[in-house]
């Protein structure tokens, strides 16, 4: 085992993924800003990054968060990552991963993967069979590694003037999570005592 693998394992053991509450919104906005400041400059123009940072402080941003299912990754009381999903407007069997942000000090530790898997599982449990990610340019390789396929681009309007390009990446989740569900059901059945045996 390499040192990096051990540290990733230890980090995931200590990290809990929990639903977001309204009390978390201030920390959540700070995490979004910190993540954009750390990575956005490498992929987008100063104007595009500035528009994102301005948008986070707008009331509409909080209203949008309230309409999403937001999951947080916490290391004790420190917020180290967040992801959110919601139903797609035009496709009844598709959920949308609307956001994924990580604390810059906790990248490459498995937290992003764990958050996305939780979003996928919750989407499947909610009746969705496909999931699409509105991916920033810097997160394309990450989603591709998880099996998401590119379905084109769309623009997200930021700050009423800047068009911020997002890539739409989609994955079929039904098969994987149906197997997981069956496996859990089989394991639960195997653990159920049979009447008349060992009584």
Biggest sheet, spatial arrangement of strands: 1-2-3-4-5-7-6
Please estimate the helix content: 40-55%
CATH classification class:
Alpha Beta
Largest sheet: 7 strands, mixed
The CATH topology is given as Aminopeptidase
Task: Spell out the helices and strands N to C.
Answer: HEHHHEEEHEHEEH
Q: Beta-strand level of the residues, as a percent range?
A: 25-35%
**What characteristic shape results from the CA principal axes?**
globular
Please identify, by name, the CATH architecture: 3-Layer(aba) Sandwich
The overall pLDDT, averaged over residues, is 81
Please tell me the total number of domains.
1
Query: What structural category arises from helix and sheet content?
Result: alpha+beta
Number of helices: 7
Q: How many strand segments? A: 7
Unreliable stretches covering 5 or more consecutive residues? 1-6, 194-199
The rounded distance between the terminal residues' Cα atoms is 45 Å
Rg, rounded, reads 19 Å
């Amino acid at each position: 085992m390499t040192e990096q693998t051990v540290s990733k394992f230890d980090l995931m053991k200590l990290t809990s993924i929990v639903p977001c509450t309204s009390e978390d919104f201030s920390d959540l906005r700070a995490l979004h800003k910190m993540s954009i400041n750390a990575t956005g400059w490498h992929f987008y123009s100063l104007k595009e990054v500035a528009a994102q940072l301005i948008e986070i402080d707008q009331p509409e941003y909080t209203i949008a968060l309230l309409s999403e299912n937001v999951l947080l990754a916490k290391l004790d009381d420190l917020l180290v990552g967040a992801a959110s999903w919601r139903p797609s407007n035009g496709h009844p069997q598709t959920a949308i991963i609307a956001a994924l942000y990580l604390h810059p000090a906790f990248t490459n530790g498995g937290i992003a993967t764990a958050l996305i898997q939780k979003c996928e599982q919750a989407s499947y449990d909610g009746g969705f069979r496909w999931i699409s990610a509105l991916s920033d340019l810097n997160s394309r390789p990450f989603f591709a590694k998880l099996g998401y396929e590119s379905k084109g681009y769309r623009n997200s309007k930021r700050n009423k003037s800047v068009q911020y390009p997002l890539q739409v990446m989609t994955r079929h989740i039904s098969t994987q999570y149906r197997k997981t569900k069956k496996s859990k059901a089989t394991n639960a059945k195997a653990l159920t005592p049979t009447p008349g045996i060992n009584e």
